[in-house]
Specification:
2 domains, 19% strand, Alpha-Beta Plaits, alpha/beta, seven-stranded mixed β-sheet, Rossmann fold, four-stranded antiparallel β-sheet
Length: 275
């Protein structure tokens, strides 16, 4: 089917890969949220998904032998509040520290309660998290426009609305002070530095989901540095799609969240034709 006027045109190699994925026996589709389904905005609390994005994921999840999951650095509470996904869609939050399996896939992940939420950190980790929150909070107080985001097992320093030079210096200073502290795990993304007391990442979480669902093909779409961990665990038959022009291990690219919608539409269209 040719693209309609005004619709994004996907690269021929990507279209061929998507059609192969759509024809597979079992399929897992996992998508990052910010910068992938929701355009990047100055205020992260206002990062709404593109119109039709969550409906497209729900349509995919309703197809036979198809699992769908969101994979985000946001906490599950924040992700659910913004995306409002139906229960059929799985959720991976806090870079993998919080997980809820898609409908039909047993959540057997060690370290999580039956709801998929992380068990509370033990006393030492909880105390360390309090210290990290204090450190990041103190830096936020010094950098106008920066903000703190607390998560179940970590804390993030955001500086998208701050002076970029001052924000980057503050992030570097936090990393220098905290990176070598025992029990602290550091990750960076677009205008954000995050400090966690659990070493989860999107790659480990995606691999656990692949092990749970055992799909013939996995499609993973993401835009940020933290999504590279997800691309790294994909197999030869799988499809990694990078949103944007940055260096990546993904095998395919799209330019924007609008093109991600075109990817989902292509999968829905051709997977719906399976007998």
């Amino acid at each position: 089917m040719s693209a309609q006027v005004g619709e994004p045109t996907l690269a021929a190699a990507l279209v061929a890969a998507l059609d192969r994925a759509a024809a597979s026996g079992t399929l897992l589709v996992a998508c990052d949220y910010d910068g992938t389904l929701a355009p990047i905005v100055d205020d992260p609390d206002r990062a709404a998904p593109l119109l039709g994005a969550i409906d497209a994921l729900a349509d995919l999840a309703a197809l036979p032998a198809t699992w769908v999951s969101l994979v985000s650095g946001r906490s599950l509470d924040a992700l659910v509040a913004l995306a409002c996904p139906p229960r059929a869609i799985g959720l991976i939050g806090s870079h993998g520290a919080e997980r809820v399996a898609p409908a039909g896939a047993a959540d057997r992940e060690a370290g999580h309660d039956p709801a998929g939420l992380p068990r509370p950190p033990h006393h030492e980790a909880a105390q360390l998290l309090k210290e990290l929150v204090a450190e990041v909070g103190a830096e936020v107080a010094l950098v106008p426009g920066s903000r703190i985001e607390t998560k179940p097992v970590g804390v993030a320093f955001h500086y998208r609305l701050a002076d970029p030079v001052a924000g980057a210096r503050a992030a570097d200073a936090l990393i220098e002070r905290l990176a070598n502290r025992p029990g602290v795990h550091v990750r960076t993304g677009k205008m954000v530095a995050e400090f966690a007391v659990a070493g989860a990442n999107k790659g480990e979480a995606l691999k656990a989901l692949i092990d749970q669902t055992e799909p013939d093909v996995t499609v993973f779409v993401g835009d940020d540095v933290t999504d590279e961990d997800g691309f790294a665990v994909l197999g030869d038959a799988d499809i990694g799609i990078k949103v944007g022009s940055e260096v990546t291990a993904a095998t395919h690219r799209v330019a924007s969240p609008d093109e991600v919608l075109a990817v989902l539409a292509r999968l829905i269209q051709h997977r719906s034709l399976r007998g």
